[in-house]
Amino acid sequence: MLSGRLHLLCAVTALAALLVVLQAQTTPLFPVACELNVLIILDRSDSVKGGFNKSRKFVTDVSEELQIGPSKHRMAMIVYSGLSYRREVFNWNFAKTNEEFVRVTNNLRAIGGTTNTKKALEVGLELLSQRNQTIPTLVLVVTDGRRVIIYCEHRGEDNASLVTQTTVAGTSSWSDCRSADDPKGPGQQMQQLYNTWVFAAATGEPEKVDTRELIDITGNINHIVMHRGRELATDITKRLLREAQDKCRTTTTTTTTTTTTTTTNPITGCELDLVLVIDFSTTTDPISGFYKDLSKRLVSSLKIGPHYTQVAVVTFATVGRTRVRFNLKKFKTQEEVLRAINGLESKGGTTAIGEGIRLGTTMASEEEGARPGIATKVMVVFTDGWSNKGPDPSQMAKKAVSEGFEVFTVAYTAKVKNAVTTNNETLKEVSQDGAHSFTDNDYQKLIDRIRQRNLPCL
Ligand SMILES: *[C@@H]1O[C@H](CO)[C@@H](O)[C@H](O)[C@H]1NC(C)=O
Ligand SMILES: *[C@@H]1O[C@H](CO)[C@@H](O)[C@H](O)[C@H]1NC(C)=O
Ligand SMILES: *[C@@H]1O[C@H](CO)[C@@H](O)[C@H](O)[C@H]1NC(C)=O
Ligand SMILES: *[C@@H]1O[C@H](CO)[C@@H](O)[C@H](O)[C@H]1NC(C)=O
């Protein structure tokens, strides 16, 4: 199974292909260890509007793969922009938990202006000198990847006149045309530190990224993570981290012979906690059968199991009639889940979408079988969008998103006797954005998207 999985990754991205090669040479692309120092160097200049928010989201998303704390993944962070702006430096172990890390990071705000990566790396070197050297270190420079505009001067052909020009870093053929804050020096120093891996992630559009600067920082093109096709930089980084820790687990079990527990949970990378929230109120009575069919289609295309997709179903009607039909840990096979969905019956009532989403969100706890930090969380709300009872659907949806769910809506639009038209306002508010709102017509696209998570294991 593993080789098949590697094979698939290989086909997916060149980066992954390199990973395989590097693994064969026993030089891991990522540090393989259960304990790590992780230094985040985060560019807070907002060269593209919203660029910083993207970078910040990247950092918090990636942190889900870590177990932050003084005995596991020890974090430090530098948030920087131009020279004249205040830099924020968070020392080692500033966050004792993942929650604390996310809270601190989410409080960071963008500052416009220029970027001085060189200075940030110099501060990084200082921080790194205080790291715990007995464990490996991962440095991750995160930027929206903007091109640095630099000012160049060089002699004209007559060797007398001075030609000046502003240019985009990385595009000039003049070797002397480098920005004053060329990060190459401190970058190289960092790369040479014992047991240290330097990575850079660009969260902006790949074609706008100044690759040369990032190569200067990392010293290795394979240490640059960018969006590739439909795969986001976040996904790639998360996968690398996950695989590194996967190996670390195997290493621990094979070398620590004293460990009696051989039941280590291997991370497959296909973990998905899927919560289906289905409208069973009267307004949708004629189509609750279709919602069931759509749910079954989705479940049938996924790999179900404790190491893959786990499914929970919440049905909603009136507030009092909204209930968890089964939680994430109830069923372990696809047949069981399909049978359970088949057996659902609509009793009708008023409509309380918000309550359905609220209850769906409670599935995120370990008691319900969720795998926080390991599984991706997806909620699919099947509804026509009409709500007349209970908490505000859009607020509940926002809360679900803030707890890590990716929230989709699916409306049934085909003509059905007695069915009402869809309330597109609410559908739009509940799904995170237009790209998260589907109907029976484009449902296959949603399936394909959710299925991505299981692909490596199918
Ligand atoms: C970035 O996020 C902050 C709060 O987290 C928000 O106030 C701001 O509007 C966002 N900026 C953009 C451009 O989206
Ligand atoms: C460094 O990490 C090792 C391994 O976890 C630990 O045993 C040691 O106490 C740490 N050293 C310091 C100074 O924190
Ligand atoms: C151009 O000027 C530089 C320094 O000013 C000098 O070293 C070089 O020899 C000159 N080259 C020519 C072709 O005159
Ligand atoms: C609501 O969305 C559906 C599906 O996209 C579409 O068919 C319908 O025309 C929309 N209704 C309104 C009133 O815009």
Automatic annotation (TrEMBL):
Keyword field contains Signal: yes
Location of the VWFA domain: 37-240, 273-455
Matching SUPFAM superfamilies: vWA-like
This protein's record includes keyword Signal: yes
Keywords assigned by UniProt, alphabetized: Signal
InterPro entries: ECM_Assembly_Org, VWF_A, vWFA_dom_sf
Gene3D superfamilies membership: von Willebrand factor, type A domain
Domain of life: Eukaryota
Signal peptide positions (record): 1-24
Protein name (database record): VWFA domain-containing protein
Species this chain originates from: Caenorhabditis auriculariae
